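Look over this entry.
=====
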Amino acid sequence: MSDVEDNLQPIAILIDELKNEDIQLRLNSVRRLGTIARALGAERTRKELIPFLAESVEDDEDEVLLALAEELGAFVEHVGGPEFASLLLQSLESLATVEETTVREKAVESICKIGEVIPQDQFQQSFVILLKRLASGDWFTSRSSSCGLFPTAYPRASEEVKRDLRSLFLQLCKDDIPMVRRAASAQLGKFAKHLQPMHVKSDLCPIFVQLANDDQDSVRLLAVDNCVAIATILSNDESATIVLPTVRTCASDKSWRVRYMVADHFCELASALGKDVTKNELVHAFVRLLKDPEAEVRTAAACKVTLFCGLLPPSQVDLVLRYILPCVKDLANDSSQHVRAALATVIMGLAPILGKEKTIEHLVELFLHLLKDEHAEVRLNIISKLDAVNKVIGIELLSQSLLPAIMELAEDKQWRVRLAIIEYIPLLASQLGVEFFDEKLGNLCLAFLGDSVHSVRSAATTNLRKLTEVFGVEWAQSHIIPKILSLYLHPNYLYRMTTLNAVTVLAPVVGNELLNNVLLPLVLRLGLDTVPNIRFNVAKTLQALLSVPLDPVSVQTRVKPALMKLCDDSDRDVVFYSRLAFQ
């Protein structure tokens, strides 16, 4: 009797929990379905659990149904493998018809996952029949869901069934309900990849053009993705005849959302349509998008400027100068900060395309203008890409033209801008050389150690190591160490903390003599500081120094006695880190 009760217990618990009023309990129960199925075994899962779940999907919260749709997609092994996978389709079919979009999408995803493993002899009678049932459903939800099954069904279908599927898909593309047409349009590109080119041209291309001219912009905007998919299937000449007119139409669509999609996918469109079409047709379309009245469209187009110019043949640089560069100059003065910020992320990439002379003639002035933009995001985006310009015009010209602006930004009120300047300094240092660096940037670099923002001070200490690696230990001893010693005496404990951080960073690169004779005594003096935060950071620093080859005599006579003293400190954090350093 007890064995029977044990066998029934998992199902009984599941039934109780799935009927509980607490949604979280029901959700947890659904997420444990795999564990329950393993406890039941494949046969009982097929005979008891699956029928029960088919009844449970009738009415529940969307969150629970979403979890159930996801779990069932990974349930093939629990029902005994691919041979019995079709048993899962009934529950998922019900989930594919619910009102909530996310549940339907997850159910379709799981159905497709199961459809890929169903044996071929069962595929027609299970998967294809389910697709046709959904496609002919009374509610738009089932017809919408059916669209997502075509890319999975078509490759495995017979020639006769393929013909039926093509016909059925075309019907869905002409459905009276916009949501169904949208779902069909969303799958058209994926479906086209599985069709022979002759069927793409005869069946899908006419409906593709029709959907691109749909009266609903939610349907039309999906035509952009389909342009890319179909153009990759057709020849360049066929694409120019069939796809290009749709691209032109979408690029000038009355809905800004459609134009935004064109701008966002413009480089993919150009790649798919080929270099000749790009050169002769798409340059003018791109210029219109760069001048679009909607800021969102201009932002998307601005992000693609460099990538699109890179798709043009090197011999066509004059097209960039004649058509695109004037638009870039206008965008640099755009009224929208988002447009200017988008341009700032990519404009530096134009330098390698235009070459040294044209960059100096046309772009440097724009770089300076954006470096002085009133919005920090624009300035940050320019600073982060300066190395791209350096490779083209050289550090000497860069320093002459942009260094004054960089020096000015080092005192920017936005700390993130100052942080970006710090991160760029090592590159400048390696290119400028020690004399030029000391003259122009040396004081600036050390001034960052006293910044009011911790992140800036921390980045500045990290820079010290990079600069020491570039200029050598002697340079560090004469330029960096005096600044560290001055911070040690600062009345604000946060700056004294910077001293400890600097010692930790520099220790591996300054050599034993400087470490033992200058930096270690500095740390030991800070061990007597009145602020507990300084003292426990001294313990951390000493622990870090122990991993550096310190003089063994210094370890025994100076480091360990200092740590032992800190172990008796009145502050428990100091004691904790001191003991940790001993381990």
Remarks:
- The longest helix spans residues 415-432.
